[in-house]
Structure formats: C-alpha cells, structure tokens
Design brief:
Two copies of one chain form a homodimer. The first copy, chain A, has a single domain, classed as Alpha-Beta Plaits, CATH 3.30.70. In chain A, 37% of the residues lie in helices and 32% in strands. Chain A has four helices and four strands; from the N terminus they run E-H-H-E-E-H-E-H. Chain A has a four-stranded antiparallel sheet, with helices on one face. Chains A and B meet through strand 1, helix 1, helix 2, strand 2 and strand 3 of A and strand 1, helix 1, helix 2, strand 2 and strand 3 of B. Strand 4 of chain A pairs antiparallel with strand 2 of chain B.
Chain lengths: 101, 101
C-alpha cells in the first residue's frame, strides 16, 4: 500500500530555472530519505506558492518526512505550510495510468 | 511543460474497496478528458477526506477539468473542495524520479 504526501506553502522564490539550480542539492538528498519513491516539485510564481507531491512506501515514512520537512521549511523562514498524507486507492489509480508501482 | 492539479475534499465515503467499485466508471471516463496524463486517487477514511492528484498536458486543460470536476463534486453534495494547479519544475522532479514524462 502506497501513501501520497502533498505539501504546499507560500514563498517569495526562487522559481523556474533559479529554483532548479538553487535546490538541486536538496533534491539529491531527498532520494536518500527513507521510503521516498518519487517527488514532483511544484511551483506557481504568480501566486508565490510552491510545494511537492511525494509517493512513499509506508504511512510512517511519509509522517516522519513531513515532520522533518516542515521543520526545515520553517528554518528557511517559510510559514503557511500545508501538508496532507493520503492512502492511494490502487485499483482506481491503475485505471487512470497512475505511476504508483 | 506539465501541470499538476491537486484536489481534496471532505466526504463520508465510500472508501477502500467500496470506493474502488463505486467509482470505476468515473475513473474510466476520466481517461477521456482532454489533457489528462494520469490521476492518483487519494483517500483517508479516518479523516473522511479524499481527492486526487492529476498530471495534465497544459494549464488550460487543468483549469477546465477543475471547473468541471468542482461542479460535479458539488452535485454529489460535496463541499469544502480545495483545488490547486501548479507548474511542474521538471529539472528538480527528474532528479527525484518523478513520473512526468
């Protein structure tokens, strides 16, 4: 059973290519976190919002990551952090070609 | 450039296997919607919440889908619908093995 974590927050940037350069090391470190299968990095420069969608092997891994990541974002000065963990409905997701294997 | 739509809302169910059976026809219809690449169906029976994470080909496709889907959910009696559209940061997402191709 897979778990999905969705995180989003308000931030002043960087966005786009600057974001890609500024957070490459962080992205690499995320591959080392327990239970992370993948992350999609999300951004909305106009709304000044960003975040991520993650797939995890277990609910516990997702919960531990959210705690760690929320503390890290707070240390960056980011507030208004919204994090939610959901179970993935496998049967319905597979109908819609979801990347959950 | 790909766009991510995240939707979640409060609902009384069904969850789990009943959800899989009850919404299979809806899931199949979603494959016919313009620009949908995939959908991950999300659920949290304990919190009585559910939703979906979608990848779209264009921002316009995501916006049109969110309008249609919000109206459909409202017709089901669902309130507290939260829908957000983000641009995907491709370079960072590919570092984290994201399924965005």
């Amino acid at each position: 059973m897979k778990y999905l974590l969705q995180v989003d927050f308000i931030m002043d940037g960087p966005f786009g290519e600057e974001m890609s350069k500024g957070f490459a090391d962080l992205a690499n470190s995320i591959n080392e976190e327990p239970g992370v299968i993948w992350k999609i990095w999300t951004e909305d420069a106009a709304a000044k919002e960003a975040g991520g969608i993650y797939l995890f092997e277990t609910k516990e891994d997702a919960e531990k990551y959210l705690d760690m990541h929320s503390a890290r974002l707070t240390s960056f000065g980011i507030t208004n952090i919204r994090g939610k963990i959901f179970e993935v409905n496998k049967a319905l997701s597979l109908i819609n070609n979801a990347p959950i294997k």
